[in-house]
User: What shape does this take?
Amino acid sequence: MGYTEQDIIGTHFAIIFTAEDRKSKQAQKEINAALSEGKAVDERYHIRKDGSTFWAQGMLFPLHDEQDKLLGFTKILRDYTHKKEKEDLLKSNLTYADSIINTVREPVLVLDAKLIVRKANRAFYRTFQVSREETLERYIYELGNRQWDIPALRQLLETIIPENTHFEDYEITHHFEKIGKKSMLLNARKLYRVESDTQMLLMAFEDITKEKELETLKDNFISVASHELKTPITAAWGYIQLFERQIEHLSLAPAPTTSMEKTKQQLLKLNDMVHQLLDLSKVTSGTHPLDFTEFSMDTLVREVIENHTLINPDAEIHIHGSVGRNISADRLRIEQVLNNLIGNAIKYCFGSARVHIELSVTDNSSSVQVCISDNGIGIPVGEKERLFGLFSRASNAIRRKIPGVGLGLNISSEIIKKHGGNIWVESDGTNGSTFCFTIPIDASME
Assistant: This one.
């Protein structure tokens, strides 16, 4: 405190209280509390001889003799300045975080290291229909009558987060007490402030329930529509064949072959689109599981190239590198992806197609990588991300009236994802494109 014995002995202990506390007679209030309850405990600023202040926890005890006569008091002070600074900084941080998260439209929580909710934004209260009193300073699993005690969330917070600084797009589906069944994407990041030696966890929730419902509706529509379209196509094809036989049988004048051939070509295109829709429905719904077998990726790529060379004799297709080992995957599905990517490379080229295929194994030897480059029209800047979406096509392909319906890349993407791999495209928008995909050496283990 900075006092000598001569300075302090005989002085009222109110001297160590701040001017504000002396004015409000805080010292006497402590004495009264100690007398009535046997002890007075508080935390407040106290003052040293030099006028500097520090935050302390104070405990005041009455002292009695054997006849229970009051002799005086013992006051013990613990310097909690560091604790107070940390608390003030944490409050400042939380206030700062509060001003930010309340501008975010998605529900957001701020948890401390013990998973106690320290902050929640307005969107959280509105989305989950809960109040501040039901949320703040509560253990996350106790929120909303324990509706957040979700096994998937526990795994995330107690297993994944301790080993990682963040996680993204962790999907959970749960029935919440007030809002019903919801599908949520969880994103979180650990925030550590060195100056306050505190750790917080920022969690954001994205409601994807409508998107999931629309996705299911889309899959059902594709399945029903493709089946319904197949029947009239089959019937029309049968009638054309019957008409051709009748013309031939009757030995009539030269048949209108040009019109007939054009009709057949259009029906074949329509039939191909229906088959792609059916295929997409099977892949996305999981009704057609992957058939894993061991095969040589090098051999498969060469076979696909041979087929395309027969169909497109003017195309130059070159292969570089090799995998050099068998992989375990669905051979027919991977062949389908290769056919689509190589076929697109030829179709979208300027004049004579030049296609280069690069085969390799990733650095950790766990995956195969295939890259197919062309000298085609390229992918416009800003369109690469959506190119693998359903019915998505590059705008320059549409302007040039290059035929296609935008299903092949979507199906290829779904097949690669089912294998536990990734697919992407690289292009500067003018000088061709490079489509790449990776799949694990043993995709059956994914």
Notes: The chain is about 40% helix and 25% strand. The mean pLDDT is 81. The radius of gyration is 37 Å. The longest helix spans residues 209-250.
